[in-house]
Amino acid sequence: MATSNQLDVHVAAYQGKNIYDFDNEIVLTWYPKRIAHVVKDPRSVLDLGLGHGFATEIFSDRCARHVVLEGSPAVIQNFKLKFPDNRSEVIETYFEEFDTKERFDLIVMGFILEHVDDPLVILKRFRKFLTPTGKLFVAVPNAEVMNRRLGHLAGMLPDMEALSENDLLLGHQRYFTVSSLTKLVSDAGYKIEKLEGIYLKPLATSQILALNLADNIIQALCEIGIDYPELSCGMLAQLTPVDPARS
User: For the segment 215-229, what is each residue's pLDDT rounded down to a tens digit?
Assistant: First the structure.
């Protein structure tokens, strides 16, 4: 498990001025809306990770109680500067150490499993914080997104699961595929109720920026991605415990 100082090293990647901010804003403002489409007006939401803060800002307006866990004091400070009026309760803690008697209607692991040392531990640990009818959603980056497949076939990306320099700046430890995500959640005692894609990204970010695509085209790429998780930038999985009684 990383120390606070190690986590704080990555805060610069969340402060803007990065070419991938374009992708991040699309992805991180899209998947919370997809979750809200399934879970209407949850009483309480437990959200793992602040990151860029886009998802936190959206969830805080859609539920009575929104609790966010974050292990980096620097990322928390950055979030409070960007969103000073946000009303979410932010708790500084490692995911591996968090504990409470409270149970939540909705738990969201939005792009955090690629950061942690052991995703299996996190998935197993948090099922006990769900209410009996609660929902758990996981969003992860996809190694086999269309633009990486193109780069691989063109001989520009030998290993589609290789981490880029930007991944390392963000603190990523891994990518996922449909196959690896399915195995992970099964090993953790869940079944996938629904799997969808987040933003079908056909080209590299620099190429898409050069095209200066209109907002309605970006929206269309997000909508197409729903049915093509294996080609999309991210994957959103709705999970349910195989044996809720064990939670």
Answer: 999 999 999 999 999
Within the chain, residue ranges assigned H as helices are 4-8, 21-38, 54-60, 73-82, 119-126, 146-153, 165-170, 178-187, 205-211, 215-225
Q: Tell whether the model's pLDDT for residue 96 goes beyond 80.
A: yes
215: tokens are: 């907002």
> What is the Cα–Cα distance from 35 to 136, expressed in whole angstroms?
10
3-state secondary structure of 169: helix
Nearest-angstrom CA–CA distance, 111 and 14: 13
Cα–Cα distances (Å) from 88 to 57, 62, 69, 73, in that order, read 8, 11, 10, 16
Query: CA-based Rg of the chain, rounded to a whole angstrom?
Result: 17
pLDDT on residue 66: 96
The CA-atom distances, in angstroms, between 180 and each of 82, 126, 143 are 34, 20, 10
pLDDT: is 12 or 197 the higher one? 197
Contact predicate 72/49, CB 8 Å = no
